[in-house]
Task: inverse folding
């Protein structure tokens, strides 16, 4: 489930040789493959790479179609997953327009997580906001607690995962582990639309110098930020 959350909600980083020039590879049979990384730093060592560009789910599917790739190779610090193009096409077709369902969470575990967030947030100054939800895919009977964490660092993943590990070390939460709870890292620029959607959903949120209200009550909305210049998602080594 976390794999598809990362791919279809969080997007991936694709290595590039120059702005707009994606680096692809070949499998042992000669078929073209697209490489996707959970952390943009993982792709910088590829021959010819100057950085990594962020691609959301729709952009990834367009890239696979346009390049004629037969599979997507997803790499992270935990390992490598090879996803056949046919599987991704079927997923996109069957779940067209469908998104992970996020509801305000209830129960003692959700309460304990929000209280722990309020205590721990000051120890993670790069974290802007954390939203807690009860998440499930349409027609799935297996929901899980899901923490979306907006981090003012690039990449956001390491900080978000460190925060979750710190929360699960607290005594009331030590019984929790995946798949009961998971985290989705967000970057304020790359995932601005997702962050705005989370604020609209009425999910309980914890921000710096704030405390969560009653469970299921959203934190006060932040004032609209001044527009920023569009960020170019490639980096020189």
Result:
């Amino acid at each position: 489930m976390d794999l598809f959350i990362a791919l279809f909600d969080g997007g991936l980083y694709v290595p590039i040789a120059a702005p707009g020039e994606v680096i692809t590879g070949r499998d042992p049979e000669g078929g073209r493959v697209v490489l996707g990384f959970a952390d943009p730093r993982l792709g910088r060592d590829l021959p010819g790479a100057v950085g990594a560009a962020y691609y959301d789910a729709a952009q990834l599917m367009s890239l696979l179609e346009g390049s004629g790739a037969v599979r997507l190779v997803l790499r992270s610090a935990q390992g490598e997953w090879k996803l056949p193009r046919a599987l991704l096409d079927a997923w996109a077709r069957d779940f067209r327009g469908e998104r992970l369902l996020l509801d305000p969470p209830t129960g003692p575990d959700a309460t304990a997580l929000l209280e722990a967030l309020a205590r721990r947030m000051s120890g993670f100054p790069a974290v802007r906001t954390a939203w807690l939800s009860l998440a499930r895919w349409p027609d799935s009977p297996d929901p899980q607690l899901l923490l979306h964490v907006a981090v003012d660092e690039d990449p956001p993943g390491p900080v978000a995962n460190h925060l979750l590990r710190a929360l699960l070390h607290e005594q009331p939460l030590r019984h929790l582990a995946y798949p009961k709870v998971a985290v989705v890292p967000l970057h304020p620029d790359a995932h601005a639309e997702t962050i705005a959607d989370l604020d609209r959903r009425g999910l309980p949120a914890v921000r710096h110098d704030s405390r969560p209200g009653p469970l299921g009550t959203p934190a006060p909305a932040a004032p609209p930020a001044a527009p920023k210049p569009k960020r170019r998602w490639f980096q020189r080594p």
